[in-house]
């Protein structure tokens, strides 16, 4: 079994091989070029050193003359410093046998320099001790050696320059020749490096290219493509084999999905037939119910009869009931104004108070400027009905419902508060999360459940924060607050 080498490792290996090859070649070229440059740079070192000695010799000669003429101690100090510097420089020309011709000439210059230094020192010392005869004699000898040395240095410098020029020309020719060789080596190495790199990259990426072509065919919907087998043990080989397995699995999934769709289609047809049967049954059931419009017209007729018989309380009660059903028939799935919603609540409270002998106290606190704001229809009456249904059973104290409409911050707040039994927090959570059976119970009684109100409010305003139910504790009542965004009012006023 071949060991697995990752695609990244192979790329790193290619990079290292090519980098090392180019590094070795460039290092070899660099070392050779450095050697040549050092040789060229050192070709004229002899001339530079000789000129430096000549300059120092001139300084000694001048300082000797100046001191003899002036006896200035500063000049004397500088003279002795320059003598020491000159000795250090001239020591380079001291050679021992065996010596070349140039070494012999340099050694002669060293010997002459030794004599010259002796005479200038003696001349300065004689001048300092005021020995006129001696310092004149030493000065004369020093001048003769100086003149001879300057001529000798000039001749030696010319000879060295001539020899160095010949060496420089040879090294320059060698440098140009070497430069050409190095360029050829670099080009050959670079070309070889590129060829190796391309071959290795092609070897690595060819399976990837074939895989991409196959993936394109599959992407176009052709699952009957010829799958490419790969023997690579890197990530490309793993991806290739995984892709082949994916195509095979996709074929199996499509086949299973087709069979599932056929089964689902058959079940859907059966479900449609069952729904049709249920709707037919519901239609027959509805046809057996009293037509709401017929009920409304009947109540109107009863109201007219009560009025003709001077039964004012009966007339008012029947008239309120008729108005209540007319609004409910008209507005159940539409919008209405806050004023209309409050009117239907007024009628509903009146009807309930007739039924329960006026034991329900009803208070309103309404901002009149908000009565024309539109809200979903039949929103407030189900909340009031819920207060009476669940808040007041077995309540022995005064039953009271307070309704208020106010503006707070960015909302219009409609509050319905009762002083009944209150509502446990877990029940509030179930209602707010639509986990209660209140809707079913209300539908059985022909009403609208509180969960229906919550759902319609949230859908109408596209927000979950439009209704809030709070209860402080047992026997402390419950408050349902509706939050109408104020920008709704502003849009309606435009």
Describe the model.
The chain has about 500 residues and is of the alpha+beta class. It contains 14 helices and seven strands. It has helices spanning about 5-40, 45-70, 75-90, 100-130, 130-220, 235-285, 290-310, 310-330, 340-355, 380-390, 425-430, 440-445, 450-460, 485-494; strands at about 335, 360-365, 375, 400-410, 410-420, 465-470, 480-485. The protein has a five-stranded mixed sheet.
Strand order of the largest sheet: 2-4-5-7-6
| Gap from first CA to last CA | 81 Å
Indicate the mean pLDDT: 77
Give the low-pLDDT segments: 281-291, 438-447
Q: Report the order of strands and helices.
A: HHHHHHHHEHEEHEEHHHEEH
What is the strand tally? 7
* Beta-strand share of residues: 5-15%
Main sheet attributes: strand count, strand direction, barrel closure: 5 strands, mixed
User: What is the molecular shape?
Assistant: elongated
* Radius of gyration based on Cα positions: 59 Å
- The helix content, as a percent range, equals over 70%
Structural class: alpha+beta
Number of discrete helical segments: 14
């Amino acid at each position: 079994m071949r060991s697995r080498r990752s695609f990244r490792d192979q790329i790193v290996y290619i990079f290292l091989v090519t980098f090392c090859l180019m590094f070795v070649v460039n290092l070899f070229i660099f070392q050779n070029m450095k050697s040549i440059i050092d040789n060229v740079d050192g070709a004229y070192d002899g001339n530079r050193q000789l000129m430096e000695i000549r300059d120092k010799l001139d300084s000694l000669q001048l300082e000797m003359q100046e001191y003899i003429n002036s006896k200035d101690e500063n000049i004397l100090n500088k003279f002795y410093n320059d003598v020491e510097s000159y000795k250090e420089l001239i020591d380079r020309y001291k050679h021992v046998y065996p010596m070349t011709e140039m070494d012999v000439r340099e050694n002669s210059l060293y010997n002459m320099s030794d004599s010259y230094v002796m005479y200038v020192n003696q001349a300065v010392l004689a001048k300092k001790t005021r020995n006129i005869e001696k310092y004149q004699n030493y000065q004369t000898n020093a001048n003769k050696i100086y003149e001879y040395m300057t001529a000798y240095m000039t001749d030696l410098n010319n000879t060295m320059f001539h020899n160095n020029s010949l060496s420089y020309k040879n090294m320059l020719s060698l440098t140009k020749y070497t430069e050409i060789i190095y360029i050829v080596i670099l080009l050959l190495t670079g070309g070889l490096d590129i060829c190796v790199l391309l071959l290795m990259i092609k070897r690595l990426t060819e399976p990837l290219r074939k895989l991409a072509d196959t993936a394109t065919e599959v992407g176009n919907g052709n699952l009957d493509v010829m799958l490419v087998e790969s023997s690579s043990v890197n990530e490309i080989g793993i991806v290739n084999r995984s892709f082949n397995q994916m195509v095979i699995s996709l074929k199996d999934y499509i086949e299973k999905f087709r069979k599932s769709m056929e089964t689902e289609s058959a079940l859907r047809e059966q479900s449609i037939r069952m729904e049709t049967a249920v709707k037919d049954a519901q239609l027959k059931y509805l046809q057996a119910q009293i037509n709401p419009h017929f009920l409304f017209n009947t109540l109107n007729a009863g109201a007219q009869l009560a009025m003709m018989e001077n039964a004012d309380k009966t007339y008012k009660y029947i008239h309120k009931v008729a108005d209540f059903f007319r609004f409910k028939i008209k507005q159940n799935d539409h919008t209405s104004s806050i004023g209309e919603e409050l009117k239907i609540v007024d009628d509903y409270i009146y009807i309930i108070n007739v039924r329960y002998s006026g034991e329900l106290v009803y208070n309103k606190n309404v901002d009149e400027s908000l009565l024309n704001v539109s809200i979903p229809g039949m929103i407030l009456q189900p909340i009031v009905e819920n207060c009476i249904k669940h808040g007041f059973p077995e309540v022995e104290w005064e039953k009271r419902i307070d309704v208020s409409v106010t503006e707070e911050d960015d909302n219009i707040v409609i509050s319905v508060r009762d002083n009944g039994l209150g509502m446990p927090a877990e029940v509030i959570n179930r209602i707010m999360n639509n986990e209660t059976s209140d809707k079913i119970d209300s539908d059985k009684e022909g009403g609208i459940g509180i969960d229906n109100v919550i759902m319609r409010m949230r859908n109408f305003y596209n927000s979950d924060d439009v209704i809030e139910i709070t209860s402080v504790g047992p026997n402390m009542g419950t408050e349902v607050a509706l939050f109408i965004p104020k920008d709704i009012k502003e849009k309606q006023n435009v």
